Amino acid sequence: MLNNIYTDFKNYLESAFPDIKIDEYRGEFKEKAPVNWNPSFPCCLIKLEEYSPVVRASSGEIIRHQTKFTLYIAEKNSLGYELIQQIVDNLNETHLSHIVNNSVPVIIDGGYDVEVDSVKFFTAVNSVRVHTLNITIF
Q1: 3-state class of 3 per DSSP?
Q2: Are 51 and 67 a contacting pair, CB within 8 Å?
Q3: Using one digit for the tens of pLDDT, what is the confidence trace for 89-123?
Q4: Spatial distance between the Cα atoms of 52 and 59, rounded to a whole number of angstroms
């Protein structure tokens, strides 16, 4: 289930924001960034924070779950607020579908609900400002 949620969410972001590099966060904005990282901006890097079953059936099957992600949104030579607002507006109260036959996910009723929890300034590196966007998918 977790792999489906992550994959569907990443594919949704890639289709909704084709001009932004979407990838997994691997510590790129820590003091010692990965050696092989080749930065591309603007970017939105996804980090899984938590996955937990919220409701289980009497059989033990997970009926409802919650997944928390942090998006690291980096924009060069700009404050990045316009980009952040676009992403917030697009994600807030969005419903994501599960990918079927490797097609692009679409916004539908049902599927996964997305809620934007918070936006915070993370760091500034040279002319790049990085903000975090915390979201919950359930």
Answers
A1: helix
A2: yes
A3: 988 767 776 544 444 444 444 577 889 999 999 99
A4: 17
